[in-house]
Amino acid sequence: MEFELDDEQRLLRRTVRETVAKVRGRPEREQWATYLRLGWLEAPPLELALVLEELGYAADPSPFLATATWFVPLAGRLPEGSGTAVFDGHGRYVLDADRADEVALLTPDGVTVVPGAGLAAERIPVLDPRLHVARIRAPGELVAGVPDLALTGLAATAVGACRKVLDLVLAHVRQRVQFGRPLGSFQAVKHKAADMHVAIERARALTHFAALTIAEDDPRRTRAAHMAKAAAGECQRLVFRYGLQLFGAMGFTWENELQYALKRAQACDLLLGTASAHRKALLS
Amino acid sequence: MMRLADDPGVAAFRTEFAAFLDAHLPAEAEARERPRSSAHVPGWARRWQRTLFDHGWLLPGRPPEYGGRHATLPQQLAHLEELADRRIYHSFNPQGLGIVAASLLTFGTEEQKARWAVPILRAEITAALGMSEPEAGSDLASLRTRAVLDGDAFVVDGQKIWTSGAHDADVLLTFVRTDPDAPRHRGISALLIPTGTEGVVRRPFGSIAAEDDLDFNEVFLTGVRVPRENLVGPLNEGWRVANGSLGHERTLLWLSYAERLADLVRDAAGRGDDQEWYATLQMDLQALRLLGHRRLGPDRDPAEVSVLKLLGSEAVQNASLHALEAAGADALPHPARTGPHHHMNNEDFVSSWFERYARSFAGTIAGGTSEIQRNIIAERLLGLPR
After folding, report:
1. Which residues of B are catalytic?
2. B238 neighbors B254 (Cβ within 8 angstroms)
3. Global pTM?
């Protein structure tokens, strides 16, 4: 096995990060158009994971995640506009169903694609204010069958969001002085930061591996996707707890950017089964 | 490059080594005598190490005269993976091979390589590492054992501790203070001290596992005269030798944790496979392997091995505790066997669940404690102030 990003993949990561930073704050439609123009939706699984990590890092508000990792693997094609999918058997918490142009439904007879407007989707206010989650009223019977790529996509997004939390925390503890010393010079702080870093590295490695098994259609792909989702969830749990704690009262405010990354990571764990559910899936 | 398959050069190397192992592995009947410490190597194990040396499979990254074949780093990893997968030790004196001989090949003179390194590699002699002292553990640079030059010999006085296998070793690579006035990292030198020298007293002591599990040693050095030519590396540059020695050990050290984790996946099956910690164990193993392979890429910070050590050693400890608890009262018998017999491995198959959990602390304490690893990660990788 070889497990090192090549120069092109590193370049992609840098390009995505710079582009996302540049279009930040612009209207959502404009951001989305930029991502489409750059061809990110067509990226193969590993490159897609890199894109999603950066979008998670920025707590991106666009329908990219649902389109690339929910709609595409189910429908087998790109949507006209944006897309999402219902593959949980009930459609209670569907990413972007309120704004998707096309929705792929997993039914007992296979996959049906319907226009999003026809589903009477109702957006649900959720903990992450930038995330669109909606419930749909299905036109017929639904069945469950979560694509490996959907789990991997949530994992990659969570990993990116966790990295953002760590970066914000590191900047804070380097600069904030108490007792005449930067907070970051205290071992109690250092050790938590180190544990966050290790959790992120672990989850990221398993996420890249899951993407790689999908890219090569390796028989381990479903197990690898469960591992990625579980590891990202475990990582999120630790990073949320240590991150918010280390940021002190400042991290508890609405104004602080920290909230978006914390919430994106948390939401990615809660959607399509938390870490515990995926650990159990690995045992069966 | 990211791909599941090996590079063709690595795949061919792996196949060749696997064929060599199939042809040359000592038979079980031959390997009856067990090593009693990490520097006690029975005759059959010495012959095995010599065979590996002669065929260039002992330290494949080295040139043939030092038991290698100029293998690349990914090939060296494949070599260790094949050994680990089959639960084979290539040396039963791991510190002699991995640290002492490796340091001599990097820092030693040609004479030292011929006189000490090659015999260690060919398993003619064994070696141990004298680093820690009663007052110098994690804070190694505070070591106080002194060496004073007197004519053409150093006179060494002081005490070492945790010197694994010292009572069975022929020579100690010892770190001593040669300039008491220099800043603490600068006045240290590395000396080879033959254990038969007058004034060297070794006292092995038992571990938490058993009173007669004798690997730890105290080594008392009183007026020990060591020929000047036994100085390894330049005078007062021992800190560089120490870092280099441990660096050698640490680069692929994660593989030993991966092997432990794989053993736990195997031996706790049936006890753990309906419980979530067993899934976590499999994830830790997979993540460790992935990060270990990634570590082989160029331009990586050497401090990243701290991530591997912390992740691997803590994962082994967590899983060992879960396995112990899952065994319930069945974990009481000690000693006990908890794994299948492997005649080329000296470890788990004779260990109780208690012993396996207790031994996991070697991973989180020795070679830089988990606390030190976290400091390194925070300061060197995350840029937090010292």
Report:
1. 249
2. no
3. 0.96
